[in-house]
Amino acid sequence: MTFDGVSVGGMEESEKRRSGADTTPGALATGVFVTALALWVGSAAFYSGVVLPVLFINLAATEAGAIAALVFPWYFRVGCVLGVIVTAAAWRLARGAGRWWQLATAVLAAMTASQLYSTLVVFPEVALLRGNRDQLERFAALHQLSVHLNAVVLVGGILILCGSGLLLSRRERPA
Q1: Can you spell out the DSSP letters for the chain?
Q2: pTM of the entire structure?
Q3: What average pLDDT does the structure give for the chain?
Q4: Which residues, at least 6 apart from 38, have a Cβ–Cβ distance to it below 8 Å?
């Protein structure tokens, strides 16, 4: 915008076109989608594939479990936040963009639901049972459920991350 010939509030439209800056809501949603998805999948893969194995290989199970239990609340909460953010961004990008975006949004919603269930239901019960020798069977069953829910996040996230280039190139119209 100009005021008496002076630019106020940033670049003029002609400057934006020359610089290639895309400030549309679709561009913002695309950036949020890619960033949140990469952070979510990357953190899940690193924690599940590196941190936990290193802990359990190098420490006694009770010691490794105690350390993991300190990190799990953050892992689950951050995953929930990133899941909601990436699902909302995908929903925004999916509007009018075809069935592949709708499918990706549905997968992201399932991933987020898995993360939320782990965070709000499974983890709190596991935390209560940790160290209780009378509840080893229940602990093992919940641990297995947690592993499966985490696999939903990892597998779904990796598939969408691998397909994100195709998804982003197939957008039929700007959001």
Answers
A1: -EETTEE-SS--HHHHHHHT---SHHHHHHHHHHHHHHHHHHHHHHIIIIIHHHHHHHS-HHHHHHHHHHHHHHHHHHHHHHHHHHHHHHHHHHTTS-HHHHHHHHHHHHHHHHHHHIIIIIHHHHHHHTT-GGGHHHHHHHHHHHHHHHHHHHHHHHHHHHHHHHHHHT-SS--
A2: 0.79
A3: 85
A4: 161
Tokens 């983890």: give the residue.
123
Distance CA 76, CA 116 (A): 8
Find out whether 125 and 147 touch, Cβ atoms under 8 Å: no
Q: For residue 82, what are the CA distances in angstroms to 12, 36, 71, 157, 163? A: 33, 6, 17, 12, 18
Structure tokens that stand for 94 in this block = 């999916």
Which residue carries 């639901």 as its tokens? 113
What does the pLDDT look like over 9-42, one tens digit per residue? 555 555 555 555 555 657 788 889 999 999 999 9
Question: Hey, what long-range contacts does 47-52 have (CB within 8 A, 24 or more apart)?
Answer: 47/71, 47/75, 48/150, 48/154
**Domains of the chain: which residue ranges?**
21-169
